[in-house]
Amino acid sequence: MNEEKKSLNFLEQIIEEDLANGLPKEKLRFRFPPEPNGYLHIGHAASICLNFGLGLKYNAPVNLRFDDTNPAKEEQEYVDAIKHDINWLGFKWDKELYSSNYFQQLYDWAVLLIKEGKAYVDNQTSEEMAIQKGAPTEVGTNSPNRDRSIEENLDLFLQMKNGELAEGSHVLRAKIDMKHVNMHMRDPIMYRILKKEHHRTGKNWCIYPMYDWTHGESDYIEQISHSICTLEFKSHRDLYDWYLDQVCDPAKLRPKQREFARRNLSYTVMSKRKLLQLVEEGIVTGWDDPRMPTISGLRRRGYTPTSIRNFSDTAGISKRDNVTDVALLEYCIKDDLNKTAPRVMAVLNPVKIVITNYPEGKEEFLEANYNDYEEGFGSRSVPFSREIYIEKEDFREEANKKFFRLKLGKEVRLKNAYIIKAESCLKDENGEVTEIYCTYDVDSKSGSGTEASKRKVKGTLHWVSIKHAIKTEVRIYDRLFTDEAPDGHKDIDFKEFINPNSLQIIEAFVEPSLKSASVLDRFQFQRLGYFCVDKDTTKSNLVFNRTVPLRDKWTKK
Ligand code: ATP
Ligand code: MG
């Protein structure tokens, strides 16, 4: 029992305690509450995996609630993208809901608060109100409008609602305590005038409720038992509770806000505002640019739902702010693709080999497994001919004993094919090797069972037959930022740390079996890394993204 307790995270412990104290298990209900003002990122994935994970663990419903109270920044495009991403991650929400569904109820409650003398309309400037707010170490002072009569407040609030007052001229404030130690309790704003069309309610409203007023009451309406948010809302908890106090029916469930630390990831930024800047300024090609830490960017890059869920679980949840090393995310995708991706051959930086004793015009189709070590992957046939490409770095005229690749006078095996021996090479005026002449051992065909086929040679190289290879575009990505914490510098803008070499586009050659690959198909290009078909692929141009290399220079550093 004790051991089981230990393995629970602190939120699960809170839930277990609540259950032990009499909360019926059927009352457990969670929600994931994105604001549809951008695409989801890997930080949101932490919250998604947490909330939906609790739903699965306790067999409790999880609502998807769009927190759509700011029409200036919210769009249907974002709503659609968010739903797509959550589905793709493999989670099912119970109800799809919108805070905007509750605008009328929230308005009615606000009127009730005014009638009880607990809210008032203020028409000071925001500067005046900011000064009166005081500071954490200095009490605030009351607004001159604080004692407006209930009738006048009701009348002004109605005028606000009816669009009779100018944007920014009036707000509704809760009347709490301008001397409260918690700044959020010093007569917080409940409503502001915003003459903007809302993506769902259209022109119905021109006053919009603030986050704090909306969130807790929405949780209450939906009867969410545990409203889990990130640490920056901890100081809002007093206000969350005060607002609940005003409306909660003691016979009903009272939601509980609890906080955990945001997921931060090294070498990137995670705020939607900053990600939007990257998109709008054309620093990336869009929200789904494969260099973005968004779910859609990671998907396009070749990440799997499993890898993202494993990453979230492994990184865990914490009570304190911290930064997760992006190397963990990269480990998670390598680990998953290692288990799932078929192995194929591609040459990224080609040099030509001519096998001089292989008959001109001849071609053979060699059977090759998609995975030599695991069952169930199947196989395909790979064409072989007299002229092939190998990687430039796999050949040296001379090299020491540790170089197990091709060198003059020595043998290597071509994967799934024959043993070849380098005899001579041709160089251009710069001394660069342009062609390598080899001979092959006719009897050494892989899997043929002959003595020669069982001969051990040190190196095995990947290759493609020039005549059959498909020329493709390969996009090689590096980290988008050169700094571990690009937005962690006080006086330097995060964009100063953009890596100018985060995208390299090369022409490469892949085996013809890839002709039928579809967008998002993932492969291991043997000895190189994991690659995924990009959506820019057309009939005549196959485009691959490199998801991760097998080894990378960053971990070596
Ligand atoms: P951002 O600061 O990136 O714009 P946000 O908090 O404004 O994020 P929301 O759409 O309001 O984004 O977030 C929806 C839910 O996801 C909230 O419960 C929020 O606390 C959680 N969330 C957002 N970012 C992270 C993160 N980096 N790590 C964990 N949870 C997060
Ligand atoms: Mg937010």
Automatic annotation (TrEMBL):
Ranges where the Glutamyl/glutaminyl-tRNA synthetase class Ib catalytic domain occurs? 27-338
Domain (Glutamyl/glutaminyl-tRNA synthetase class Ib anti-codon binding) ranges = 341-441
EC number per UniProt: 6.1.1.18
What Pfam family is a match, any one?
tRNA-synt_1c_C2
The reply on keyword ATP-binding is yes
Q: Which GO terms describe its cellular component?
A: cytosol
Q: Where is the tRNA synthetases class I (E and Q) anti-codon binding domain?
A: 460-534
Q: Which GO terms describe its molecular function?
A: ATP binding; glutamine-tRNA ligase activity
Write out the entry's keywords from A to Z: Aminoacyl-tRNA synthetase, ATP-binding, Cytoplasm, Ligase, Nucleotide-binding, Protein biosynthesis
Instruction: Give a GO biological-process term.
Output: glutaminyl-tRNA aminoacylation
Spell out the family assignment given in the record's similarity comment.
Answer: Belongs to the class-I aminoacyl-tRNA synthetase family.
Name this protein carries in UniProt = Glutamine--tRNA ligase
Source organism of the structure: Lutibacter profundi
